[in-house]
Write a structure and sequence with these properties.
Elements lengths: L2 H11 L5 H16 L8 H8 L42 H12 L8 E11 L7 E5 L5 E6 L3 E11 L7 E5 L2 E5 L5 E11 L3 E8 L5 E14 L5 E14 L5 E4 L2 E8 L5 E4 L2 E8 L5 E4 L2 E8 L5 E4 L11 E6 L5 E4 L7 E6 L5 E3 L4 E6 L3 E6 L2 H4 L3 E6 L5 E4 L1
Parallel strand pairs: 2-6, 2-8, 3-7, 3-9, 8-9, 9-10, 10-11, 10-12, 11-13, 12-14, 13-15, 14-16, 15-17, 16-18, 17-19, 18-24, 19-25, 20-24, 21-25
Antiparallel strand pairs: 1-4, 4-7, 5-6, 20-23, 22-23
């Protein structure tokens, strides 16, 4: 190998140039070599050579006055499809490039990144209610409880070649921040653990293109944000829960909150075995499902998919009024309300497929196939305990009790 090529590979190993720059320089050296390789034929000669017209009886003679090197491109056996496609050129240096690049990046990390881990622990004793701001990048972020008396933060990240992300855990005025340089990283995931029985003030978990999960957490405000990935809240107690993603599912299981807000697109939202005073659920092109859940005010909106509200609990307080607003298009709505004697006010409309209603004791103001307005007799004196407003198009509405 020429001194020029060796120098280029040495610069690559030292990190002074990247792989793309090394290949460009090597190509330039190779081009200079081909100008003096002895090839003086025209294009027709080259075509004749490829078709075998100019080959002689010596299989190593390329027909242009010198022997073709027997070493094959990337170590391929002679006669294979990935053998040297230009036998009059010496491409053996490509094998050296491959080895040099593999040596340059530890663990065979050809694309120029390395994986590392950062860990830190914080004593959780005392009455300090910490707030958390934990931001990931293209990797999952998870917060949950486990035994112990310490807050534990574990960060796994893929660092760009020859970069420093300056990762640190900053504690300031009762708040815990994960700081780093995002431009130095391909990805960063976070696993955070708090002791059982620990109550946080505010928790904000954020990432992109990866899942976020909060499990067995008690806090005032819980914010979960990602995109193109699932959000899951399980066994959570909070005053307010705010979740936002795109093109992925949002699920709540055994959640107790004053207010729940969930927004996604092209994926389902589910709320199961949970309780909320107010729930605002918005998606598109996918369904919304509530099962065995108590709400006082529900606003569910989607499109081109159904809404299912099954085994609904009216409220957490007998004195609260319950409002159910469900809107979709091109799909049906199914609602099962709890049994009992309580005043009801109902409005339901669709464009096709009709409406079926099993709530008895209603006085109908309008009772058509695709539109009804009705209310209990007690509503005029005491007001409605359950207010229902259901709207869709091109799908049926089914109300059961």
């Amino acid at each position: 190998m020429s001194e020029e090529k060796l120098k280029i590979l040495e610069l690559l190993k030292e990190g002074k140039i990247n792989t793309e720059e090394a290949l460009s320089l090597l190509n330039q050296v190779s081009d200079e070599k081909t100008e003096t390789c002895g090839y003086g034929g025209n294009n027709s000669d080259y075509e004749n050579y490829n078709t075998g017209a100019n080959q002689n009886n010596n299989e190593n003679d390329n027909g242009y006055g010198y022997k073709t090197p027997e070493r094959t491109f990337w170590g391929a056996a002679p006669g294979k499809t990935n053998a040297n496609p230009y036998p009059y050129l010496d491409l053996s240096f490509l094998d050296d490039i491959r080895g040099a690049v593999q040596d340059a990046f530890t663990g065979g990390m050809f694309w120029g990144w390395r994986e590392e881990t950062f860990r830190e622990e914080i004593e959780a004793a005392g009455q300090v209610a910490y707030s958390f701001v934990l931001n990931g990048k293209n990797a999952p972020v998870k917060l949950e409880c486990r035994s112990g008396n310490k807050i534990e933060i574990e960060v796994n990240y893929k660092l760009k070649f020859n970069r420093d992300a300056h990762i640190s855990l900053r504690k300031e005025n009762g708040e815990i921040y994960l700081d780093y340089d995002p431009n130095a990283l391909y990805s960063l995931g976070v696993k955070a653990y708090v002791p059982k029985g620990f109550t946080a003030a505010n928790v904000s978990l954020n990432t992109s293109n990866a899942q976020i999960a909060a499990k067995d957490i008690t806090c005032q405000i819980l914010e979960l944000n990602t995109k193109n990935a699932h959000i899951k809240a399980e066994d959570v107690n909070a005053a307010r829960i705010d979740c936002k993603t795109t093109n992925a599912y949002i699920s709540f299981d055994n959640v107790n909150a004053d207010e729940i807000k969930a927004q996604t697109s092209n994926a389902k939202i589910s709320l199961e075995e949970s309780t909320a005073y107010r729930a605002n659920l918005t998606t598109s092109n996918a369904g919304i499902m509530l099962d065995d859940t108590g709400v006082a005010q529900l606003d569910a909106k989607t499109s081109n998919a159904g809404i299912s509200i099954d085994d609904l609990k009216l409220t957490r307080s007998e004195n609260d009024c319950c409002y159910i607003d469900a809107t979709t298009s091109n799909a049906g709505i199914a609602l099962r309300v709890p049994r009992g004697d309580y005043p009801v006010k109902l409005r339901a409309s669709t464009s096709h497929a009709g409406i079926s209603n099993d709530i008895s004791g209603l006085t109908y103001l309008v009772n058509e196939k695709n539109y009804i307005e009705a209310q209990s007799a007690e509503t005029a004196q005491s007001g409605a305990k359950l207010n229902i407003n259901l709207k869709t198009s091109n799908g049926g509405i089914h109300i059961k009790k």
